Amino acid sequence: MTNSNADTNALRERALAFHALHVPGRPLVLPNAWDAMSARLAEEAGAAAVATTSAGLAWALGEADGDRLDRDRALAALARVTAVTGLPVSADIESGYAEDAAAVAATVRAVLAAGAVGVNIEDAAHTAGGGALRPVAEQAERLAAAREAADAAGVPLFVNARVDTFLRGAGGVDATLERAAAYRAAGADGVFVPGAVDPGVVKVLADGVDGPLNVLAVPGAPPVTELAALGVARVSAGSALAETAYAAARRAVRELLARGTLGAPADGFGYAALNALAARADRT
């Protein structure tokens, strides 16, 4: 829980500001950070808010994604992100780092204590069959527990219900809308459907979901301007930025080992620039 009424009030105001950024037709574009410095980069670039990526965060800690990272380490990493930015932060908490609804509620209380004002909660159950989707009623119960925990803390946490039907090949539009309706009724504020990239499908989802629709920016997906015209309210990068950073690091390592050389950092963004950004953030 937060430490004081002042902390709770600050979180409440930040949460309300985060809610207001979700506008169909004028989507919130979220760079997904995986550590403190990537969050600072997002803020420096002009992002209105920052989300974490569970995959990137796990990789940075030497773990695999998919509910394999324990809650304490994940939330400690989250706290390092919120500590370095004044922007609203939404936490990707996978399926809640929890076996049951009561434990999801405990995770949400810890998320608030870490300073985040939003969560993504997915309906894939990695511990029960390699990513099979939870039954709708069970997932709705978990989302309701998250909603109740946040409400009890006095913070309008933005609960983003991730529907993995498209991502897991576990259903089409009808199944997605059924889950979305149940999750919204359970208290979710928005619905995230990664894997939905076809413009026609995205339009049907945007029209059919009673609330802000979040989609994932992936290669082959429509650009943000087109997604805006389709009625999308939020576009996330997911793990793509972390993948890009690690790909650049791998190329540099291979060049060093194979050729004995290192190219200059792209755009001249080397030690001095990074250190200056870190120093500036330290003073905020």
Automatic annotation (TrEMBL):
Transmembrane segments: none
GO molecular function: lyase activity
Superkingdom of the source species: Bacteria
Annotated keywords: Lyase
Official protein name in the record: Isocitrate lyase/phosphoenolpyruvate mutase family protein
Species of provenance: Streptomyces andamanensis
